[in-house]
Write a structure and sequence with these properties.
The protein is mainly beta and 69 residues long. It contains 1 helix and 5 strands.
Length: 69
């Protein structure tokens, strides 16, 4: 049971905020301009989730964005 709990905590995601974003929050998407020919928008990413992972014996850190609702 203890080994199971340890393995779950090791695989847990960790939030890494950019700037003042200390709590997980979704990216913000703003349309700056829109015409029949083009759309211009800005995406602000407040942070990412990281998760240490091993695939086929190779260790790396998986990055993920919070979900947009």
């Amino acid at each position: 049971m203890l080994a199971c709990l340890i393995s779950v905590s090791i695989k847990a995601q960790q939030w890494v905020g950019f700037g003042a974003a200390t709590e997980p929050c979704a990216p913000e998407v703003s349309v700056l301009s829109s015409t029949s020919q083009s759309v211009s928008f800005e995406i602000v990413i407040p942070g990412i989730y990281t998760q240490d992972t091993v695939v086929n014996g190779v260790a790396f850190t998986r990055l993920g964005l919070p979900q947009i609702h």
